Records
---
Amino acid sequence: MTAAARAWVPRVRAGVERALEWAVMGLMAALATVVIAAVIFRKAGAALVWYDEVAAILLAWLTFYGSGLATLKQAHIGFPRLVQRLSGRSRGAAVVLREVAVLGFLGAVAYAGWQVTVGLWGTYLVSLPAVPRALSASAVPLGALACMAAELLSVFTWRAGVPAPEREDGP
Amino acid sequence: MTLLAMFLALLALVLLDVPIAIALGVVSSGAMILSRGLDALPNVALVLFDGSANFPLIAVPLFILAGAIMNATGISRRLIALATALVGFVRGGLALVTVGASMFFAEISGSAVADVAALGSILIPEMRRKGYPGPFAAAVSSSAATLAVIIPPSIPMILYGAMAGASVVELFVAGIIPGVLGGLLMMGVAHLMAVRYGLPVEQAFQLRRVWMALRDAGWALALPVIILGGIFGGWVTATEGAGLAVLAAIVVGGFIYRELDWRQLRVATIEGGVQTAVVMLLVAASALMSTHLTEVQVPQEVAAAIVGLTDSPWAVLALLNLFFLVIGLFLHSAAAIVLVIPIVMPLVRAVGIDPVHFGLVVTLNLGIGQQTPPVASVLVTACSIAKADIWEVSKVNLRFIAILLAVLLLVTYVPAVPLFLVQLLYR
């Protein structure tokens, strides 16, 4: 990897990480606000009809955009011990196979998600007729693309010799 | 045959360090395309979206966020002060404080990793400072944190409820007696070990001190009353209760205690969002797996094969206990629930096991799994805070794991232990 590439990979990575962090914080805040507002309005006798649908969509968005951030932070649950113990060509081969599986699946999901999003064009949410369903479903292809970008950045970071972040634990 | 082929493919991908959620997606979508051709591909995207837009699971990020706000507002510190005033007079008081504070924290957070990170980061260094052996400090913090998934609210119970179609509120209620029992037994063992190690008494018992700690922690103690009271009383659903937990934590921490640390909150919110995404991607990918397995009738075949061997619920429970204890060694609780529950539920129902009873059995098994290496998220977190060797900690932790196993056996073979309150309140 060239010196120029070594310099831009961490910068791009930091930019993508910051954008995804803001998206995740915004979605967490929006989800909490919607649920709290729904409780208050229901108790006040004016239930929000769009609450269930919108909250579920926000959770789906959090899943897909948050997965991009989780990919960047290497937080997805996995079993790295075997590959870590390999060395030389066997480790290289394992990494290539891993990336083919991960990027292949994410690419297929991005393509299929795009087909679904296009197919939903012209239809609208049941509870909020002004909001296109394509907008809610777009999280699948966009989230898959974010995961692909994060995965590729992780590979480039590894190739550039920058240490990867510590693995994180789930709840 | 289908199940075996899918399992082997999944195992190969996981051993190649493919994230479990992606590995599930690769295997399931591969199987769908093999059986229905490339036309199945758009269905993969649809099932993934529907699997992630799972309304009951909205409670997961909200309980994580509530725990993050508690941490960023000094609520944890007040709970520790109260537990110290209550049990600090016993020998090895800080260990008992750890268990007691974990029981309080468990009533709001629902995540064992959040529990050990929040309380362990304060109590483990304090125990080390007072001469507690590092492995003991880490072991008691780690095992006590598991109470967070047994005492309501509990993220694994929410996941199980969504996967098994069981009532989350009934699962929460069923966790009360086993959780409190486990906590009290842990306190007993921690005290006996403290006597053996010659550990100090924290402070003399004074009613005045208890009163002052109670006054200071009064609002923090009101949080579980508001959240759990609202859920158990039918005033709000579990999801709404999680939203209420966030609101109550903001009001108590930000407006009453006025100690909101924005930087810490920002970091914790991002971490909470990432944890949610990790769990939800697993759930979405497991929806793919379930869709395919149900189409080819695998869960029904598994149920029929085992019922052919035995239809005794006790024998099936023993078998499933063993199975969950083994997979708990290698899988995180969320992954184990989304992978296994859709496959075993037809069997559980076929032999007449109450889904709420089974939910507690699963939660306890996976709680034990959080303490048993190689994959032991809570134990690893405690060890990293204590800077202690995982195997040294595990040796000490065996006593606390034995308690969790005893509670598991009690819950498995005396269903009244988890179901007494459920019967009393809801049936």
---
Amino acid sequence: MSKNENNPMQDRAAEFTQGLGRMGFSPLGAALFVLLLFTPVIPGLDNQYIIRWIVFGAFLAAQAVAFDFTAGFINVVPFGFAGIVGVGAYTSAIFSNQSLNLVFHPAISPWLAIWIGAFVAGLVGFGLGVLTLRLRGIFAAVMSWFVGIALMGLARNMTWLTRGPSGMAPNTFFASTSNVPYLYVILIMLLVIYVTLNLITRSHIGLAFRAMGQNYDAACASGINPTRYRVMNFTVSSLYAGWLGGFYAHYVGSLTPTSIMDTSKTIEVLAIAYIGGRGSLWGGIVVAFPMVFLMEVIRSHWTELPGIQFIIYGVLLILTMIYYPLGIAGIFHWLRKRLVPAAAK
Amino acid sequence: MTESGKSGFQSMLSWLTGGRVAAKVVVLLSILLAVFIAIQSGAGRLVNVFVTGGMWALLAAGLALVFGITNIVNFAHGESFMVGAYVGYYVFNPIHDYLADHPSKVLGLGAPFLGILAAALAGIVLGAVSERLVLAPLRKRTKEGWIMNTFLLTAGISFILVNSATIIMTANFKGVAQYFEIDPIRILGVRFSVDRLASFLVAMVIILAVSWYLKWTRTGRAIRAVSQDETGAQMAGINLNYIYTLTYALSTAMAAAAGASLLFIFQAYPTVGHDPNFFAWYVVMLVGLGNVYGAILGGFIVALLQAATQEYIGIAWADVIPTAVMILILIVVPSGIFGSVVKGVHEQS
């Protein structure tokens, strides 16, 4: 204490780090995030190709965070996650639709429509939370899967609204084809999602989530209202999933049921979240960027082997789950304990 | 009131309200639906229901078996179906080509069965390998959260198998137009396609054979012992790892055989297992996880529901309407209409 009084700079630095910590950032994490913000102006990284994979990395990272919020905390794997993302994407696309070929063409700005998409997805999440109230573990996961498949079926069949399997072409956010503005949009979304979910999980609500995830009956016996917390968790996670879906729709500019709502999309997000470390939230972010890059390299390198990147996903998921269930986050904690013994407390 | 004084309606009512109400209601409704379909669309439609129902039953029974005994939640069941379909194709097709030059009645009749047999053997190998490579190491390390972990692990296996198939087999459809080049048989004015009849029989024979195996052989008894009490079975000298691998292999073999015998409906394709996986899951959730005999009945109920949706609402809705019905049923009876027979499902999840 006395040392800090002598050195106000150090004091302020400590305060700053503490503040970052409250938001869920380590100094290293914050620095890396700032680096991402500056990629468009760093020479060598400033081409559209690199920016594009950062956008996709951030999109996947943000999904992994929202997924982990449910899977890693209340221990219910939302296997219909992709379906919920799709609900957000489709709602947003439908509300911003200008094409007169479809019955419904309100032509709202994508910037507004994305919020409607998030809201509707949140409602679906709320409904899913209510639906799965009586179900536990695997039953809830399978139920969520069924709901995801039903949602995909709806998107495929309501051709008057979604054009079905032939797909929609939603308006993009920006008229220009540059990826740079999208990079800032998705990075801000990622930041908002991560910081808010992190604040929630560090509050007493997060404690209740963890308690429910570890021992449901004991949590209920200690006075945690399972209905309230599970529905809350599902709603928040789905809200963000839908929000991200809206981003996807207005970034890629084309939307088919299989491109976004297929179960394999859920497994992709699940793999990222689990390799990152369940219950850490930030693990998924750390894994998503290099993973997307690696997958892109592999995909473009071995074009004669389509889908090889997904095999690697699967293998990594299996290896992580068997041999190191704590994931990357666990490795970081271990390193930190070894390198900074004081920080371990 | 004396027993004989009970009216027929009352006794029916008391039967309905006693025991598992939901099971009885669902079974009764299915019978009514079957009669309705038979009257509205002819008995030929009902035959198709039996064929798909038999296959769903075979798939779901395998799923229920493996869950009941090893508590593995197998999400890769559809991929065994896919592998079976490919093996069936690659065994049947060369024989078929050979037959074009050298006609032989015996080989012509036997070729499909050879394909199905080869598929079942491939299924055994696939099951044994994936159990040894993926699930056994996890079991050795931790049993905590086992059910959920196996669900995710097998999801990984499914991901790997589908994409490997895309690489090795490319995304082309491989199917056969017809297994048996025999005209449909007419029984009481209803045409029965021989292929469909044969696949139904295959499903029933495999289900019977497996239940015979479980009931009467020494290994079968060991399997049932493990499902009842793992620790007790181990103390009696049963090799748990062997039983686990065997059960998993048995279940994948059942799925692979189903894939081969339905090759004339579901052409071999990397993602062909998606729907069968979904419907097998659908059946086991409907009847209750781990309930093998319930799964057999459930297969037919689900096929009926599917057929009714396709017939009266539209073919595109075939996965939406049954899912909605399923969600409603699960809200009322979360552990399935016949009840989950596995103890500790909730605790271990």
